[in-house]
Amino acid sequence: MIRGSIVALVTPMRSDETIDWECLDALVEWHIANGTQGIVPVGTTGESPTVTPKEHCEIIRAVVELTDARVPVIAGTGANSTREAIEFTASAKDSGADACLLVTPYYNRPTQRGLFLHYQAIAKAVDIPQILYNVPGRTAVDLLPATVRQLADIEQIRGIKEATGSLERAAEIRALCGDRIDIFSGDDATSCELMLQGGQGTISVTANVAPAAVAAMAEAAVAGDRASAEALNEPLLGLHEQLFLEANPIPVKWALAQMGRIPEGIRLPLTALSEDHQQPVLSAMLTAGISS
Hints:
The protein has 292 residues and is an alpha/beta fold. It is 46% helix and 12% strand.
């Protein structure tokens, strides 16, 4: 499976909220040139809640074509409807995605049994490697380690993006599942330590603005080189924090716009980064060696 730095890719948009396909192409090329080892289109950072179903599938197809098998593409295909998640996952497979990332069903708050049956149904319906995605701070449902242990027995389920920020949670999953499931950090602030403790990679927001630095840090961390990983992570600590001053992807899209990588477009109900938060983000960028 995939290792190292996997970017949770933004979806570039113009001021009128339309998708900027040329910028998307340029972002993919930039990431590949800077060592990013995997790309996740249309996850939370890619504004999956507000792109249309047609756009969702088109973005995945475009990123698959742009990467041209140079790096793996893990398509964001989760939904709070099991049937919709199956449709998105089948479409991603047809487009040539290497794997799919499936967020827990949000808002409707299923039970642990409901979560198990949801993921089991998707795995039965679509034969493609699947990565669970647990982010209870956004979804209002927590995929518990005992349920992950059950899901790890399903052949198509290969990993989990654990975004609680709890190293103890990751350790519990590892103890229950062993090598049956890969663990990816979904929390930039704790990603270095999670990888040093045996995680296989990070699905990173910070990698959007510092792809080479996050790739180097992840490579060292996955290899177990603590001294190098921590030294490489030190300049990134401010970004790990300040890129979440407002709901993701508000700060990271603003930062990329300051870098000239994308236009300033973001789709409602998300809005541009407030002026009060702009200087902290700029300062974190400077500390990481990124100029606006």
